[in-house]
Design goal:
- By secondary structure, this protein is of the alpha+beta class.
- The chain has a single domain, classed as Creatinase/methionine aminopeptidase superfamily (Creatine Amidinohydrolase, Alpha-Beta Complex), CATH 3.90.230.
- It has 4 helices and 15 strands.
- The strands form 4 sheets. It has a 5-stranded antiparallel β-sheet, sandwiched between helices. Strands 1, 2, 4 and 5 form a 4-stranded antiparallel β-sheet that branches.
- Helix 1 packs antiparallel against helix 2 and helix 3 packs antiparallel against helix 4.
- The longest helix is centred in the first third of the chain and has 24 residues.
- It binds magnesium ion.
- The site of magnesium ion has 7 residues, from strand 4 and strand 5.
């Protein structure tokens, strides 16, 4: 069921989303060669707690027998890791890496979800392009996140932009509605046909998240039961914001004023 948020609920979404964005900024400021993804995890969690939120990814159920609940407060996915990388003291960032940080703050009953891919020092041109296309794909998509449009209009715009740039979107994972639950209806694929799917209405809150790969569109899951990597070992990137459908332009909720 797609939930339409009331005015009061939207205010709570705004708050959770602002905290997610603050945590993202704190992580960004700490990224440098030599830091571990575990340290980034601590920074994100501490920032959320400082603002009265908790990291919703921690303890998220795998839903698979024998696979533990997610142990991190963030997903930290380095280079060929696409999503759901587990923060670790053994994963130390080095010059030339790219790292995707996906985090969710939970406060007062509501979730705020955002992801960014960051460069560690100087990165090669290919990775630079990958990051730019992934971010721009989000903005191409939300141009269509307007009252009366259909969900497929967003998906189509993202997929077409990525393809036009010679890269591939991940097809097995998608964006989602968000609110009281981290994952609500509708699912939002990063590819598809325009003019299909539900009609967008003011009060819908959606997490739109292009996941893009430099190489083939094949992915694998590591034995930890969480980490998704590209099959060919080429880099992947991720860019996500929680947005609000309004009467006019969409509002990006996981964005800081400055
Ligand atoms: Mg996310």
């Amino acid at each position: 069921m797609v939930t339409i948020k009331s005015k009061q609920e939207i205010e709570k979404m705004r708050e959770a989303c602002k905290i997610a964005a603050l945590a993202q900024r704190a992580v960004e400021e700490a990224i440098k060669p030599g830091i571990s993804t575990w340290e980034l995890d601590r920074i994100a969690e501490n920032t959320m707690k400082q603002y009265g939120a908790i990291p919703a990814e921690k303890g998220y159920p795998s839903g698979v027998k024998g696979v533990p609940d997610f142990p991190g407060s963030i997903c930290a996915s380095v280079n060929d890791e696409v999503i759901h990388g587990i923060p670790s003291k053994r994963v130390i960032l080095k010059e030339g890496d790219i790292i995707s940080i996906d985090l969710v703050a939970y406060k007062d009953g509501f979730h705020g979800d955002c992801a960014r891919t960051y460069a560690v020092g100087n990165i090669n041109k290919e990775s630079q392009k990958l990051m730019e296309v992934t971010k721009q794909a989000f903005f191409e998509g939300i141009q269509f996140a307007k009252k009366g449009n259909r969900l497929g209009d967003i998906s189509h715009a993202i997929g077409e932009f990525v393809e036009k740039n010679g890269l591939n979107v991940v097809k097995e994972f998608q964006g989602h509605g968000i609110g009281r639950q981290m994952h609500e209806d509708p699912g939002i694929p990063n590819y598809g046909k325009a003019g299909r799917g539900i009609r967008l209405e003011p009060g819908m809150t959606l997490a739109i998240e292009p996941m893009v790969m430099l190489g083939s569109d094949e992915i694998l899951q590591l034995e930890d039961g969480w980490t998704i990597v590209t099959e060919d070992g080429k880099n992947a990137a991720h860019y996500e914001n929680t947005i609000l459908i309004t009467e006019n332009k969409p509002e990006i909720l996981t964005k800081l004023e400055k």
